[in-house]
TrEMBL record, chains A, B:
This is DUF5060 domain-containing protein. Keywords: Signal. Residues 431-518 form the DUF5605 domain. InterPro entries: Apiosidase-like_cat_dom, DUF5060, DUF5605, GH, Ig-like_fold. It comes from Pseudoduganella guangdongensis.
Length: 522, 522
């Protein structure tokens, strides 16, 4: 009996030993993506029948990651390590060929430009995992990954040269009868002959390549998991709930290891009228449960707001045609939700007949500045009349509008602001300033065209004798002009401190002017 | 044995028979308050030691109502029947003298002016229980029930002659060192020598008298259960949680049978910094659990919003200094909460140095109209400089401002609007109209002073050939001027229908103008 037990133990050890992979030598950086590939069964339907996961360990930590079938008998597991040093892993599967595989690998420091995933910072702002502030300047290009290769490369070149650090983009193609997308997410025949039980790995590999391209560019991919722009044409907007749930698990298994992923459960969710609210809640819960890294999660509306106070919503993602025109509108949802607020759709720059696509560039830029001084973040896109129905909003390619240059300028200003984020200073008093009390103030006059601004700051954080310098910013012409001299404070009334000599700052009488005021370096 | 059992049964029957009250002949109307008075123990501390409740029954319905100790050996139970006919009751108590009391009484129809309690109607509006719309035109007079008799009578006379159908009012007195309130809610000695285990029934009887006076006037009493204006002076803002909970049960037991009661858990709840959020939730739950009639419940903020999407909140009660100045601000919280929205504090008419109390009458009225066309409701108050610190806001008495007359005019306009309530017509397009698509439109131009308005209506509910009449309303000068002729619609573009002959409505070039447009009676 003893002998038999010893023999069994030896056999088990040998088997385990055989399963230990050699030290994997491909270098992995912190917040990079470690990929394991395993050969496994091709029989039956691997998408439905094979379970695969792995536990990655470092010290006392254990992180469980779902694997996925990538076609042709290949199974993959992807892991985003958040700390350097040695990690080990061990797989679990209902198929012996995939079960009990173990190995280890070493994670090196993050390379330049890799700050980790973006997370919520404080109550109303974002930062990368390494602490670097993330000042969201987003755009939307729904179908850019469903275009011919040349167009997609042009989009990437445009993004590389542009101001945006986040792109909202559809996983599923939208309806486009004239230009059929090159790939579809399921096996089958367009427009509606799909086998919803079999994903098309090539479709997802392509999506991953593009998300990886954005990662290289330092751009967040705000992945829209469902959308109503299919209108039943491909039918991806009307799949059974079990297919939706399997799809969510598959997307998360494939893409969660990309540090630049955000999950947008849907765009204009309320236009998907065959899905009820509990279904949306369930989809949030699935993504929340399966994503080991807890990437940012939200959902975008048309006319009905999702209740962003639900616990699985990390930040507010809102469409509103009017909210970012006025800073006292924009500030309201901060207090309601106590989460970072992104106005992802505030109408678009363009010249089409639909009123959601006819903002002037000035109005597009105004919304970004208004959002910024309300302590919130705004999203851009553009749509101009085009004989081929080409638009940045729909397909990517080139940008034609005049706002992006000004948004690049804004992003510079934001990036030089306090790391804590811009906080509204005095929210109900027609006082359009945000910043950090006592240290930094960014004001914006929007459509008003004042010729002077009496130097006065709202009282929090101030006392007599404090000294400040100022700059006049022309947000449209992209100039920053220092104001000569230093302003010294004296209490003016119960609410404010003014310059002790009653001085004002001269302004040019044009709209879209801003002020930047900083505590003087003594 | 059989004999003994029969004897016991006979004794029990006799005892039960003795407990059956004669038919109570005092008439009770539907939604009136039926009061039962019982004599009971005076020993020990009845507030802590005696439990009393009664079940009121009609047919299959049973409604359990808490009783309360009213001092001097008297116990009371109050019940608000919501249907006519015969009701029975039976008490339950841990004291034999109060237990098992039974009786019956007959409820007659509601008398004139009694429409029952106010409830939520649809998503965003209010109605009385009998279906009559309730168009909230509220005011605030915090301490009006803590004044000398003459002042309180003056307040009631002012209310009787004024435009308001709701008053926000404090249960607990606020700090007022110069004028000590006549009564306190607990036994003991002011300012802080209270026995929190013993309520002062005379205090609550007085409060009930005033709530009853408001009921007679057809005015809702929005009872503020906690407030921060004590500042520790009386200490009612810093009682232990168990006292707060007992107080809530006592107030609900005493006052829930008044059909005009609304529960406001607190005013500026976030200024009561010694109470944390779970405590507020708990107070809501107590009121929700003990109130058999489910009177309206909300809570009012200073700088931090309570999450009004919590299930026990029936409607939104918000302070915001800026939200009701602009209809596209005001409309936002409707979509967030999907409940009726009342902006109970939007700054006040007055001339004090604090910026929350220096609105012009025009600005006060503007906020009401702006709120109305955003499909929301607004609250008034006023505070003028006064040598005796007398103000409507603080103590009641007389109104000095110029807004109330205009609010009476607004209330007339509202009362003549569709019973479903005013719904914003096209919320993101600088289109300041609310109403009922295809039937009724109320527009308001606020501070703008247009000289004409091109007749155009947003498309929902419209088709070519529909005919409308219009009136020009001067909201400040309180005039309604019919526009001659009838406007016939023709589709203008993808979003609107205009007058087929391109006509406009002439306007006087003054601010505060409104338009009322109704489908023509053919």
């Amino acid at each position: 009996m003893k002998l038999m037990r010893a023999l069994l133990a030896a056999l088990l050890l040998a088997a385990a030993g055989a399963a230990v992979h050699a030290q994997d030598t491909a270098p992995v950086e912190r917040w990079g993506s470690k990929e394991l590939t395993l050969d496994g069964p091709r029989d039956g339907n691997p998408f439905l029948e094979v379970d695969l996961a792995a536990t990655f360990r470092q010290g006392a930590r254990a992180i469980v990651v779902d694997g996925f079938y990538d076609g042709e008998g290949r199974y993959k597991l992807r892991f985003m390590p958040d700390s350097v040093g040695e990690w080990t892993y061990e797989t679990r599967s209902n198929r012996p060929a995939l079960d009990g595989k173990r190995g280890k690998f070493t994670v090196g420091p993050a390379q330049q430009g890799n700050h980790g995933p973006v997370q919520v910072k404080g109550t109303h702002h974002f930062a990368y995992a390494d602490g670097t502030p993330f000042w969201q300047v987003g755009t939307t290009s729904y179908g850019w990954t469903h275009q011919p290769e040349a167009t997609e490369r042009q989009t990437l070149a445009t993004l590389a040269a542009g101001p945006f650090n986040k792109v909202r983009m559809l996983v599923f193609p939208n309806q486009d009868v004239k230009h059929q997308p090159p790939r579809f997410p399921f096996e089958g025949t367009p427009p509606k002959g799909w086998d919803f039980s079999r994903f098309n790995p090539a479709f997802f590999r392509h999506l991953e390549q593009r998300v990886g391209d954005l990662r290289t560019l330092g751009i967040q991919a705000d992945l829209i998991l469902f959308h109503p722009y299919d209108k039943g044409y491909w039918g991806f907007d009307q799949m059974p709930a079990e297919v939706n749930e399997r799809y969510l698990r598959y997307v998360v298994a494939r893409l969660a290891s990309y540090r630049n992923v955000w999950w947008s459960i849907a765009n204009e969710f309320d236009y998907l009228t065959n899905k009820q609210m509990p279904e949306w809640d369930r989809y949030f819960e699935i993504v929340q449960a399966r994503d080991p890294y807890q990437h940012l999660r939200s959902i975008h509306n048309a006319m009905v707001l999702y209740n962003h106070s639900k616990p699985w919503v990390t930040h507010v993602s809102v469409q509103s045609g009017a909210i970012a025109e006025d800073f006292e509108r924009a500030v309201l949802l901060r207090d309601v939700y106590m989460k970072p607020v992104v106005y992802d759709e505030v109408k678009y720059e363009g010249n089409i007949e639909r009123r959601w696509g006819q903002l002037s560039a000035q109005e597009m830029v105004l919304r970004f500045w208004t959002g910024a001084i309300a302590g919130t973040y705004v999203g851009h896109s553009e749509i101009f009349k085009d004989p081929d129905d080409m638009s940045w909003l729909g397909k990517g390619g080139a940008l034609r509008g005049e706002s992006p240059a000004r948004l690049a300028f804004l992003r510079q200003i934001l990036s030089a602001s306090p790391a804590e984020g811009l906080e509204p200073i005095d929210k109900w008093q027609e006082y359009p300033f945000a910043g950090k009390p006592g240290a930094y103030y960014l004001g914006y006059f929007g459509r008003q065209a004042p010729v002077s601004w009496p130097f006065a700051l709202a009282k929090p954080g101030l006392k007599d004798g404090m000294r400040f310098t100022a700059e006049v910013i022309d947000t449209w012409n992209m100039s920053i002009t220092p104001v000569p001299g230093v302003f010294e404070l004296r209490r003016q009334d119960n609410y404010s401190f003014a310059d002790k000599d009653g001085r004002s700052i001269a302004l040019p009488g044009r709209p879209y002017m801003a002020l930047r005021i900083k505590k003087a370096l003594d």
